[in-house]
């Protein structure tokens, strides 16, 4: 059996990746600073797990013990806003520890790295994102993910490794069996809207005079299962050294569409009104996912709004405080 190491395996994305890997017949070794927790499903889809930081030197013997040649690296500090207030934490975890982790990979003969990157590496000024845009990240989070890509690419070219950096757009939804989903504070309008609907609250849509079909801004949302599928596809993708690949639906869903879909596809009612647009908010941000289709033989299968909303609601129904 081929074993794959997943860092951050108890996270929102990492947990879905582990489930996909097991379903595809891989052995899974997980490492995370957070223990799986009693009554959770995190340990269900890993063969061995370790409560360590992903840069812990003990990881070397684990990689050697299981003859691991592929690592999927999802562990990171990952929100734009907090990175502006506390850049030190982001640079320590996403850059300093990343350097240590890459050295561990080099020393143990890892051949393939699948890296959770972000559309935040691009910066502003684009409506359609393609991978050959000149990157100009505007937040500490985006910069640390870009530095991570540069570091990985340099290691690959110097040390006979290969890597795929997956630039996620807005990851959403939850596991079809409601075993995993987004914990903690909601980070985008889908999770915010669903949790508010469950609580009987309302939502304010920021802006309704954008140059879009219904006047509200459009964003690219990709189901977390499709993100997990992309990670598994990247394990065996034919990549010589390094490739950065967009992982998004390629479709723009508007804020009004999302709110109306919550009202249509769930048992809840989400009242809404319109407020002022946030300063600097672009009308439309959507990815071009052609490269993912070509290099990974991947395309989204679960990222339609109905599936996204229904799975998010099923998860949050039992996991919203």
Structure explained in plain terms:
The protein has 2 domains: 3-171 and 221-247, Rossmann fold (3-Layer(aba) Sandwich); 174-220 and 250-317, Alpha-Beta Complex (UDP-galactose 4-epimerase, domain 1). Helix content is 37%, strand content 20%. It has helices at residues 12-23, 59-65, 80-85, 87-108, 140-159, 189-199, 224-235, 255-265, 290-295, 305-317, and strands spanning 3-7, 27-31, 48-50, 70-73, 112-118, 128-129, 162-168, 170-172, 203-206, 218-223, 242-247, 252-254, 272-275, 284-287. β1 (3-7), α1 and β2 form a beta-alpha-beta unit. The longest helix is centred in the N-terminal third of the chain and has 22 residues, at 87-108. α6 (189-199) packs across α8 (255-265). The strands form 3 sheets. Strands 3-2-1-4-5-7-11 form a 7-stranded parallel beta sheet, sandwiched between helices. Strands 6, 8, 10, 12 and 14 form a 5-stranded mixed beta sheet that branches. It has a two-stranded parallel ribbon with strand order 9-13. With 321 residues, it is α/β, with parallel strands linked by helices. The chain has 10 helices and 14 strands.
